[in-house]
Amino acid sequence: MKLPVYLYGHPVLRQISEDVAPDYADLKTLVDNMFETMYYSEGVGLAAPQIGLNHRIVVIDADPVAESFPECAGRKLVLVNPEIEILDGDPVSRAEGCLSLPGLSEDVRRVEHIRLKWVDENFQPHEEEISGFLARIVQHECDHLEGKLYIDHVSLIRKQLIRGKLHNIMEGKTRCDYPVKYAPKKRK
After folding, report:
1. Hey, which residues does 80 pair with through a beta bridge?
2. What is the DSSP string of the chain?
3. Residue 35, number of CB atoms within 10 A of its CB
4. pLDDT attached to residue 185
5. Is residue 187 very low, low, confident or very high in pLDDT (cuts 50, 70, 90)?
6. Does 18 qualify as catalytic in the annotation?
7. Per residue in 110-124, pLDDT tens?
8. Which is nearest to 162 in space by CA: 97, 105, 121, 93?
């Protein structure tokens, strides 16, 4: 089932997510719905807060960008309760976009070598060192679990320059080709 993607300004995107317990009801159905939503929205990753749930769940299918980033080939992940450890390397600046910030793209500096620990949808533990663009995708999606958006990593000057676009997203003046949920209107 395609779920609406919550857009910038919605409070759920700024909350810290809670760990998922092994007895989480219908986890496999939720994961399937998250993948369907991500594919329909033409994303390569989706975090549970983006569908209105503050649970530490991320789905990633990086294969669509494998032509440009070979380390992404065949990489389809379900991350439950992920933990990231930054390894070595200088941060690299690359453009990022987000389903919760339609129509925007900004350069973000991130390291490109991390160690990731997580459990999958069957609560089987995993640990892996990840590099390159896949590491960027993982960091971007895991930021959502901490109530952070990629625009939190850009300079104040860039935030000022995109302020009007952010305001339009919050006001529901942005068109999307996928189902969305706008921020609740503030009462005057």
Report:
1. 57, 119
2. ---PEEPTT-GGGGSPPBPPPTT-TTHHHHHHHHHHHHHHTT-SEEEGGGGT--BSEEEEE-GGGTTT-GGGTT-EEEEEEEEEEE-SS--EEEEE--TTSTT--EEEEE-SEEEEEEE-TT--EEEEEEEHHHHHHHHHHHHHHTT--GGGGS-HHHHHHTHHHHHHHHTT----SS-EEPPPPPP-
3. 16
4. 81
5. low
6. no
7. 999 999 999 999 999
8. 105
* Structure token pair of residue 110: 């991130």
Which of 102, 76, 71, 84 is closest to 179 using CA atoms? 102
pTM over 0.90: yes
**Residue 158 is encoded by which pair of tokens?**
């860039």
Residue bearing tokens 């857009």:
7
Q: Average per-residue pLDDT in the chain?
A: 96
* CA 41, 42, 48, 49 torsion-angle sign: negative
Catalytic residue among 127, 141, 146, 171: 141
131 contacts 119 by C-beta, under 8 angstroms = no
95: β partners: 107
The amino acid sitting at 43 is G
